[in-house]
Inverse folding.
């Protein structure tokens, strides 16, 4: 963290035609969230005073996604994609009054790390360019440095053989004081083959005006950009490998690491155990000592210490599991709170419910929470016993220590300590089964 105030500009206006998609490139998912979410999450570590995302192609979809990810972010519109400097120019009016360091990031570059961003934010130079030593410099712009810092950025097509031999290349990420950007952005021209306004002109203009311009370097892996589906798949593999390593380093047991899939914000506490083929969607917290058995899918949920989930369970958004709760196989929980010690062994759906501590939910129980128009809640008290195959037709309350008989359909509130039976009376027809079977056999024989 730097003492100088920080603002972020995230460029997210491109279509990404090589993705072969109607979806804006920055909305393709990596680690369970849109690509732009990774840049926003990394920048959040700097505690920025302001965040501006520049949208263009699919601007309304980008706005909605960014608002979910970063509610305080402002959206600037780049109606025509006329280059990176033009994009930053569209963002600057939303930073009126801001006096500090502006860091320009890219919504399709998800791996720039906290430490790298901190060095960009805190560097004393007026302009700082992020570079890296490329294994294969290819057609990257070369960073030519000297005793006084960055001398110039030379595009590949304009470089001579000596310059092309330089392995230090430009990532495109730049940090500069807001006042400097306001001064020099209007001076950038578009006299180039593409007719675009390039942010890479800022260092040259700044140096010509006797400002200090420097390079900060990072590992090449941090600068990985996403332009194709194949690159997105490779980035997912990189993300998952890193996430698994971080989990195990922090004291989490992964029974078969290669089969566990994390989201960007997954939190798993120390001494938790994660079985094979577990998938974490966004918004999951697993407390220390919990166990997630194989083949579970979790999203938007909280699992407390000592709880066990699965195998083959699904926790949907709003699921809150208290300590020592057991959720077994083929159980689905959605928008429901299960207090300490609740047992839901198998083949059950609990939606829009609150289950009190120590309650046992029998196999096949369903909270019938949707009437075709609205959702309704089910309340189950502490230490209740819900018999197998009970249908709880919400809104309904089952009291503390109450019981429901197996196969019941419960449509009215059940008082504390009461037994509720809501099923049809069993009717006996002696000998009828044998006569029916005989008739069926005769029919088949004919």
């Amino acid at each position: 963290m730097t003492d100088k105030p920080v603002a972020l500009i995230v460029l997210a206006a491109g279509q990404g035609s090589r993705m072969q998609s109607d979806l804006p490139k920055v909305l393709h998912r990596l680690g369970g969230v849109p690509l732009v979410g990774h840049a926003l999450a990394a920048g959040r570590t700097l505690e920025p005073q302001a965040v501006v995302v520049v949208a263009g192609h699919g601007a309304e979809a980008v706005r909605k996604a960014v608002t979910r990810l970063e509610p305080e972010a402002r959206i600037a519109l780049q109606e025509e994609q006329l280059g990176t400097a033009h994009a930053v120019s569209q963002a600057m009016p939303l930073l009126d009054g801001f006096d500090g360091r502006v860091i320009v990031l890219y919504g399709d570059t998800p791996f720039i790390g906290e430490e790298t961003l901190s060095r960009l934010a805190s560097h004393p130079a007026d302009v700082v360019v992020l570079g890296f030593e490329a294994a294969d410099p290819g057609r990257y712009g070369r960073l030519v440095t000297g005793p006084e810092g960055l001398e110039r950025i030379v595009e590949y097509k304009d470089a001579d053989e000596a310059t092309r031999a330089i392995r230090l290349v430009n990532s495109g990420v730049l940090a500069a004081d807001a006042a400097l950007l306001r001064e020099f952005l209007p001076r950038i021209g578009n006299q180039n083959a593409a007719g675009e306004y390039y942010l890479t002109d800022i260092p040259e203009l700044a140096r010509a005006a006797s400002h200090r311009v420097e390079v900060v370097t990072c590992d090449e892996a941090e600068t990985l950009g996403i332009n194709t589906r194949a690159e997105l798949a490779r980035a997912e593999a990189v993300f998952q490998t890193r996430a698994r390593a971080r989990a195990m380093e922090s004291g989490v047991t992964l029974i078969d690491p290669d089969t566990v899939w994390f989201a960007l914000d997954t939190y798993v506490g120390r001494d938790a155990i994660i079985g094979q083929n577990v998938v974490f969607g966004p918004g999951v917290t697993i407390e220390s000592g919990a166990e997630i058995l194989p083949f579970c899918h979790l999203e938007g949920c909280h699992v407390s210490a000592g709880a066990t989930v699965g195998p083959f369970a699904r926790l949907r958004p709003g699921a809150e599991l208290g300590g020592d709760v057991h959720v077994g196989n083929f159980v689905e929980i959605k928008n429901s709170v299960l207090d300490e010690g609740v047992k839901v062994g198998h083949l059950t759906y609990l939606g829009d419910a609150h289950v009190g501590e120590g309650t046992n939910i029998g196999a096949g129980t369903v909270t019938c929470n949707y009437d075709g128009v609205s959702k309704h809640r089910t309340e189950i008290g502490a230490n209740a016993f819900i018999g197998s195959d009970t249908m709880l037709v919400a809104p309904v309350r089952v009291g503390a220590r109450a019981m429901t008989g197996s196969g019941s359909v419960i449509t009215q509130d059940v008082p504390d300590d009461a037994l509720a039976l809501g099923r049809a009376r069993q009717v006996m027809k002696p000998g009828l089964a044998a006569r029916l079977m005989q008739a069926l056999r005769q029919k088949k024989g004919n």
In short: The two ends are 87 Å apart (CA to CA). DSSP finds nine helices and 35 strands in the chain. The CA atoms of residues 61 and 377 lie 32 Å apart. The longest strand covers residues 168-177.
